[in-house]
Amino acid sequence: MSVNCLIDTGSTLSVIHIRKFLSIPESQRPDKIYEGIQLKLANGEIIKTMGQADFDIKINGKIWKQRFVIAEIDAPAIIGYNFLYSKNCKLDIRHSKLTIEDFEIECQKESQMSSIFKIASEQNVILPPNSETIIMSKVLGDSSHLMDAMIEPVMKQDNEILVARALVDPSSGRIPLRIANLTSFERTLYKSTCLAECHLCDYIFEMENTERTNRKVFKIKESKADEVPEHLVTLFENSISNLTEEQGLQMKGVLKRQADAFANSKNELGSTDLIKHKINTGDATPIKQNPRRLPLAKQEVADREVQRMLDIGVIEPSISPWSSPIVLVPKKNDPTSVRFCIDYRRLNNLTKKDCFPLPRIEDCLDALRGAKFYSTIDLQSGYWQVQMDPADKEKTAFVTKRGLFQFRCMPFGLCNAGACFERLMECVHENGERVVAYYSKSFSKTERQYCVTRRELLAIVASIKHFHHYVYGTSFLVRTDHGALRWLLNFKNPEGQTARWLEFLSSYNFEIQHRAGRQHGNADGLSRRPCTQCTHCTRQETKESNAEEDPSCYLRAVKTAKLDSKIREEIEIESTEQGANWMQSKTTEEILAAQQQDDTIAVILKLKLENQPKTKVGRHFF
């Protein structure tokens, strides 16, 4: 693959653009090497890299090997200082020549080689909220030799200012850009703000056989829809337009399995027996109210709604001593239509209020933070799916010119209906644990030197501080895979930082529960994920797995220390319970032989025997 490279003596490393790397055929693409390198730009900004790869560089027929960092940069590739220094290169800037070893290379000027140009705004522009605007922009540089180019946005999406991709002709130096402001307030784009990049297109292909393709897609949809329940065909066809073939088949399977969860029509209702709505009016005398007169044009609407509710079983004829009038309220979104309501205000005045808390919108928004997928699935007339208590049905009675009727299910307008429905939702979702929020913390340079127990204790302290709003004043459970923390919190004479941490934790009511690392995957999944580029992680994972079944196959370093007698007793009891006395069955010779066979411990033993703790490798262990 031929690539125009930028020679940059100010770049410590050689870098290739991620898009150029991915454009290499997979069979010829070099393997990535993940080493966690970050690039710091001249302006101080730090960008993440996608790994490294070793390439063969061919210049004027001669080949060199060079490692490139893979990242999003402004050029297709950068030849950095590491290559120039290792190959003893000489750069003649005036004559645009690069000397590598014993031959010269003619370099192109930037205007000749560049296939990427910056696009900036021509003037200050005010973007209205929640709207899209087309503005004129200018190409920074000489783009007269370009014919077709693709606009690629460079602004981060978290700014909520989006630039649309488009195929353009930048030869004139001016390009129209479509920019969307997704915020709820005005945003200003100042003159010369870099908005996008203009990338040269090597090839442009026309679409062929579009009619045949469309006909094929239609047949696929039709064949899939044949197997979907009839009342879900429209839903299915509207949903698969942006799905792949495999995703469409998966969705079809879900709809077939859960077909009974979807209403056939607006008149089909479900019903729950988890809760029944009660109206507690004490010893109050029944209230009787006369029907209100309705305009002649509205009487037919009221009769039609009463008949519909009778047909679907929501109401039934009544002989109740209670009665409330009906009210037809115009809908806000459609003033020509009305909503059938019942005036239960006098009944609500006599009802003892249910104080079950309703969720606050602020708390609901906390739970949505970081979510990527949102569902608009709703219950079909959710209140009508809650049954009325038989003793209180008569209190829901309403009067029309057709007679007296009462509700068999919970109607709208009752003062305790919202609390009752929220209690039902809590009852449905109360089983099982659910994630409220995630939290992580990177250790500082000093904290990384802590012992394992101290780091685990710091993790508990930091997490409880972060979730103070949720856990303070309540009893909660802390699960950890470090068993020593169970007795550490009962330490009698703590000192220094440990004492301060334990004092902080004493203001919370919680219990520490030990959970084995194998069962701790929900918290340690990312940190325990093995990499595929080396064999150490796989070997280590195998040893840890075997150690839980047979501890003798994996030995750890042993360090002796004097312990308080009470702590010693607790440790011995705990060790006995967990079967940790397995070392007593091993002789000194067997332990020494196992250590010499271990790749990691063997290195430490060798350094110890050679008295080399001050070497670079030795300092890592000592």
Structural summary, described in words:
By secondary structure, the protein is α+β, with helices and mostly antiparallel strands. The chain is 30% helix and 22% strand. Strands 15-17-13-11-19-14-16 form a seven-stranded antiparallel sheet, with no helix packed on it. Strands 1-7-2-6-5 form a five-stranded mixed sheet. It has a five-stranded mixed sheet with strand order 21-26-25-22-23, covered by helices on one side. Strand 5 (52-59) and strand 6 (62-71) form a beta hairpin. Helix 11 (452-466) runs parallel beside helix 14 (496-505). The protein is extended and about 110 Å long.
Structural category is alpha+beta
How much strand? 15-25%
Helix content: 25-40%
Query: Mind telling me the CATH class of the domain at 272-429?
Result: Alpha Beta
Query: Treating each run of at least 4 consecutive H or I residues as one helix, how many helices?
Result: 20
Total strands: 28
Give the overall pLDDT as a whole number.
Answer: 78
How does CATH name the architecture of the domain at 272-429? Roll
What brief labels describe this structure?
single chain; 622 residues; alpha+beta; Cathepsin D, subunit A, domain 1; Deoxyuridine 5'-Triphosphate Nucleotidohydrolase, Chain A; HIV Type 1 Reverse Transcriptase, Chain A, domain 1; seven-stranded antiparallel sheet; five-stranded mixed sheet; 20 helices; 28 strands; extended; EC 2.7.7.49; Retrovirus_Pol_polyprotein
